[in-house]
């Protein structure tokens, strides 16, 4: 028999309810009283009272924290398993209990409970199934039986309209992670004793860090069932139990996932992790450069995005301000990917480049898209390996260089963007070649890639010296 | 200290972890997903907790749980996800739990699109969910501030026991810039109200339900008093060229970056323009705007929304303002804003939009 002494897990008087209050909020014959007492007794027996954090749900047991002298959190409708997840992930030593009713768990909180179960969260869930919404006023629950009359099914639950009752143990039993699933009944004394063993197993599993444990308790609600307490217990056994079979669905000795506490980095390790990578010796620039509004564009795979990042990196290493922004929206049309890079001695306002003074066009659609946006006097570097046409504009400085071929010659077509950037650096002087050479090893992990990219820089410089330098000096003199 | 090139959406994670963040619960959404990616990498590799939740509704409730247990908790999302979190945000406010939420705004309404907008302003700055509550709202305008604000946010959240929002936009999330990362790790002290699963904290209760109207009235009063204190203690803004300004821009986030460029262009034309950018949107620098309103001839609010912040500027300035609004993910160029300003300067217009 259930002991009549009040377990010490309960407060002596329920001060949160009212001064000196000794009564609970539950109706005569309600199953919550039984369920609460079983849980309180087991907590006392296991000596875990200090470690328990009890999640009160909504509904009739919303005030469970009036009674349980444990850590308490009150949760919103259906979310208790998510709150319990947060608690258990924050406190290794906590014994987390989520106590939920049928509307809460199987209705609004169906997603939360299934995912908490699927993750094998360390919590004991006590699911009170009384086939009806209690506190809200006797409405249909997901577990309401076919034909059962409620305030929202006044003619009885009809499968054609409301579907069939949901069986949660059976659903959760489809998942891999839970270690323990059992349905018990509060129909009579013998059943209540069996229920206590289930409660104990679920909480012991938490003590032993075994994982997600789920106990469904079929529970009477005489008031909303419109029955006497005795009729309600009988109905529970005769009508509910056949639909919701009372049994152990799963009890796994070895949990499918072993609990391993994380290795927490020290403050010093954390600071190191985020500290700037190896510094390189580049004299901080005192040079004044004209603000560079650069658009680097090409097709996906030509590396224009990372080329932009690389350029911005070179600029900040030299002490400039720089921003990088990826392509967005309508600019994407014409199959071009593009990045905006700004380099300046001053604080940079908008990072968007709508009117570039530098365009690096790696393919034909890029030139088509951006040719008209360049400011008069701007610089355009055209990858003549892939762009056959010349610029229509005459008020900008156009440089045609077989960027892809130069890259191919050093053995890596993907280095084309590095070739283009090197040419840009040679022509504009905005960043130094030495900087490019020093930043490449920082940006690439594979040594072979570093080598071939450094070769690409060399080849680009050589191309510039041979084919562009004199012509540029000449054109600048004009 | 050396600077490094970092994306705004990553800088926020660096700042958060150095600011003592212990838990990240989130659900991916463009354009905030890089935050989840960086959090997945760095929260896990540093032994902190990262968990991809099944949805935003439960993500915010995981924050509620871990914050109840004394954790320094955060999530990141964008408009549609923040809307789903509204319920949980209200509960966090009711239970006075500290949390940090990053909103990288995209365009709406509905699924909208993934380009930048600033149309979550009302939802985030005014509270969003049910009940009389507010969030502290920080408005970063650079990758550096994504890092800095995240670094500070957890201390602020703990001090006021409130949700601190970092209200960014798709561009501030995507931008890469030089960032100087803090070199000291902050930590949460033991919180006397939190649950540590031990004897000392056993009698603590985290709840937002107060059935007694008298008690709930006083709880609400207490919250309002806290918010009033915030307005005394926490308002932050930055001004550019306002000393002699006759034309004042007010903008935050990417709009402030654009406005800064426009102010420079106008100054080049010898036009006396200035910019005030709120760094805190709640509490709002209304008093400073009121003072500047007496000095300047015209006020223009540049915003990627239908004028949501402009309404607060008008309230503070006690007069209508010029609303330079863009919506649907369209972001103006310097030229577009400059043209509007030049036109309004010429015609001495004080109302638009």
* Stretches with pLDDT under 50, minimum 5 residues of chain B: none
* Proportion of residues in extended strands of chain A: 15-25%
Count, helices of chain B: 12
**The top level CATH class name of the largest domain in chain A:** Alpha Beta
Q: What's the end-to-end separation of chain B, in Å?
A: 45 Å
Walk across the major sheet of chain B and give the strand order: 3-2-4-5-7-6-13
Can you tell me the CATH superfamily of the largest domain in chain B? Thiamin diphosphate (ThDP)-binding fold, Pyr/PP domains
Taking the sheet with the most strands of chain B, its summary is: 7 strands, mixed
Question: Which pair of chains has the greatest number of interface residues, and how are they split between the two chains?
Answer: A-B, 72 and 80 residues
Q: What is the CATH class designation of the largest domain in chain B?
A: Alpha Beta
Order of helices and strands of chain A: HEHEHEHHEHHEHEHHEHEHEEEHEEHHHH
Oligomer: heterodimer
* Molecular shape of chain A: elongated
Task: Tell me the CATH topology of the largest domain in chain B.
Answer: Rossmann fold
Could you explain how this protein is built, in words?
The complex is a heterodimer of chains A (478) and B (353). Chain A has 478 residues and is of the alpha/beta class. Chain A folds into two domains: 31-155 and 163-251, 3-Layer(aba) Sandwich (Rossmann fold); 276-477, Pyruvate-ferredoxin oxidoreductase, PFOR, domain III (Pyruvate-ferredoxin Oxidoreductase, domain 3, 3-Layer(aba) Sandwich), CATH 3.40.920.10. Chain A is built from 17 helices and 13 strands. Chain A has helices at residues 31-46, 64-67, 80-90, 102-108, 110-118, 159-162, 168-172, 189-207, 222-225, 229-243, 267-274, 304-317, 364-370, 403-410, 416-428, 433-443, 447-477, and strands at residues 52-56, 71-74, 95-101, 124-129, 180-185, 213-218, 247-251, 292-298, 321-326, 337-344, 358-361, 379-383, 397-401. Chain A has a seven-stranded mixed β-sheet, sandwiched between helices. Chain A has a six-stranded mixed β-sheet with strand order 9-10-8-11-12-13, sandwiched between helices. In chain A, helix 8 (189-207) links the parallel strand 5 and strand 6. In chain A, helix 4 (102-108) packs across helix 5 (110-118) and helix 14 runs antiparallel to helix 17 (447-477). The radius of gyration of chain A is 36 Å and the shape is elongated. The model of chain A is unreliable at 329-333 (pLDDT under 50). With 353 residues, chain B is an alpha/beta fold. Chain B has two domains: 4-233, Rossmann fold, CATH 3.40.50; 238-347, Rossmann fold (3-Layer(aba) Sandwich), CATH 3.40.50.920. Helix content of chain B is 43%, strand content 19%. Chain B contains twelve helices and 15 strands. In chain B, the strands form three sheets. A seven-stranded mixed β-sheet of chain B has the order 3-2-4-5-7-6-13, sandwiched between helices. In chain B, helix 1 runs parallel beside helix 2 (33-45) and helix 10 crosses helix 11 (308-317). Chain B is globular and about 70 Å long. Chains A and B meet through strand 1, strand 2, helix 3, helix 5 and helix 11 of A and helix 1, helix 2, helix 3, helix 4 and helix 7 of B.
């Amino acid at each position: 028999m259930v002991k009549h002494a009040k377990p010490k897990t309960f407060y002596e008087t329920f001060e949160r309810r009212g001064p000196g209050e000794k009564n609970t909020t539950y109706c005569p014959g309600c199953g919550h009283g039984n369920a609460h007492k079983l849980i309180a007794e087991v907590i006392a027996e296991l000596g875990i009272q200090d470690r328990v954090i009890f999640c009160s749900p909504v509904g009739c047991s919303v005030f469970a924290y009036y009674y349980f002298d444990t850590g308490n959190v009150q949760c919103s409708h259906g979310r208790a398993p998510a709150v319990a997840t947060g608690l258990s992930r924050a406190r290794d030593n906590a014994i987390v209990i989520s106590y939920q009713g049928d509307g809460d768990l199987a209705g609004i909180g169906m997603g939360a409970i299934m995912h908490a179960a699927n993750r094998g969260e360390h919590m004991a869930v006590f699911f009170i199934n009384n086939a009806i919404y209690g506190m809200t006023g006797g409405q249909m629950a997901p577990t309401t039986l076919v034909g059962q009359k409620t305030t929202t099914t006044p003619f009885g639950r009809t499968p054609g309209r409301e579907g069939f009752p949901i069986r949660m143990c059976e659903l959760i039993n489809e998942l891999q992670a839970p270690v323990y699933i059992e349905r018990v009944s509060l129909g009579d004394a013998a059943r209540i004793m069996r229920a206590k063993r289930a409660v104990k197993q679920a909480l012991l599993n938490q003590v032993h860090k075994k994982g997600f444990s789920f106990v469904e308790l079929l529970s009477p609600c005489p008031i909303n069932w419109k029955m006497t307490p005795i009729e309600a217990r009988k109905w529970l056994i005769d009508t509910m139990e056949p639909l919701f079979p009372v049994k152990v669905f799963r009890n796994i000795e070895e949990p499918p996932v072993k609990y391993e506490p994380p290795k927490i980095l020290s403050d010093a390790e954390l600071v190191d992790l985020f500290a700037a990578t190896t510094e390189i010796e580049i004299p901080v620039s005192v040079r004044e450069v004209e603000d560079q509004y650069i658009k680097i564009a090409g097709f996906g795979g030509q590396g224009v995005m990372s080329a932009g990042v690389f350029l911005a990196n070179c600029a900040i290493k030299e002490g400039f301000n720089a921003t990088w922004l990826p392509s967005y929206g309508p600019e994407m049309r014409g199959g071009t990917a593009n990045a905006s890079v700004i380099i300046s001695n001053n604080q940079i306002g908008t990072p968007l480049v709508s009117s570039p003074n530098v365009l690096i066009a790696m393919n034909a659609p890029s030139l088509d898209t951006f040719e008209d946006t360049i400011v008069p006097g701007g610089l355009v570097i055209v990858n003549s390996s892939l762009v056959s046409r010349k610029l229509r504009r005459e008020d900008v400085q156009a440089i045609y260089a077989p960027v892809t071929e130069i890259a191919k010659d050093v053995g890596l077509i993907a280095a084309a963007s590095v070739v283009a950037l090197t040419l840009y650096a040679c022509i504009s002087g905005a960043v130094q070649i030495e900087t490019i050479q020093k930043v490449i090893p920082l940006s690439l992990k594979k040594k072979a890639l570093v080598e071939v990219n450094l070769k690409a820089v060399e080849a680009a410089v050589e191309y510039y010296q041979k084919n562009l330098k004199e012509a540029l000096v000449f054109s600048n003199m004009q | 200290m050396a600077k490094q090139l970092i994306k705004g959406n990553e800088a926020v994670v660096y700042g958060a972890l150095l600011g003592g963040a212990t838990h990240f619960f989130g659900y991916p959404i463009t354009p905030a997903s890089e935050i989840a990616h960086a959090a997945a990498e760095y929260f896990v590799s540093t032994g902190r907790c990262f968990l991809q939740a099944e949805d935003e509704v439960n993500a915010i409730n995981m924050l509620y749980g871990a914050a109840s247990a004394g954790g320094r908790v955060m999530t990141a999302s964008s408009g549609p996800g923040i809307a789903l979190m509204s319920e949980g945000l209200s509960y966090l406010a009711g239970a006075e739990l500290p949390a940090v939420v990053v909103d990288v705004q995209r365009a709406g309404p509905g699924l909208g699109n993934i380009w930048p907008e600033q149309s979550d302003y009302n939802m985030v700055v005014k509270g969003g969910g049910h009940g009389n509550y507010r969030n502290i709202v920080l408005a970063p305008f650079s990758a550096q501030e994504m890092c800095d604000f995240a670094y500070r946010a957890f201390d602020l959240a703990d001090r006021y026991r409130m949700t601190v929002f970092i209200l960014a936009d798709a561009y501030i999330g995507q931008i890469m810039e030089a960032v100087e990362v803090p070199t000291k790790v902050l930590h949460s002290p033991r919180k006397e109200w939190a649950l540590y699963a031990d004897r000392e904290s056993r009698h603590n209760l985290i709840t937002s339900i107060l059935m007694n109207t008298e008690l709930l009235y006083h709880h609400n009063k207490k919250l309002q008093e806290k918010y009033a204190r915030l307005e005394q203690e926490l308002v932050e803004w930055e001004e550019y060229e306002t000393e002699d300004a006759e034309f004042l821009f007010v903008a935050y986030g990417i709009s402030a970056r654009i406005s800064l460029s426009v102010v420079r262009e106008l100054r080049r034309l010898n036009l006396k323009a200035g910019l005030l950018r709120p760094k805190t949107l709640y509490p709002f620098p209304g008093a400073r705007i009121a003072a500047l309103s007496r000095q300047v001839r015209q006020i223009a609010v540049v915003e990627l929304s239908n004028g949501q912040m402009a309404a607060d500027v008008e309230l503070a300035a006690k007069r209508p303002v010029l609303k330079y609004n863009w919506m649907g993910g369209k972001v103006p160029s310097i030229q577009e804003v400059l043209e509007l300003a030049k036109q309004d300067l010429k015609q001495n217009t004080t109302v638009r939009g």
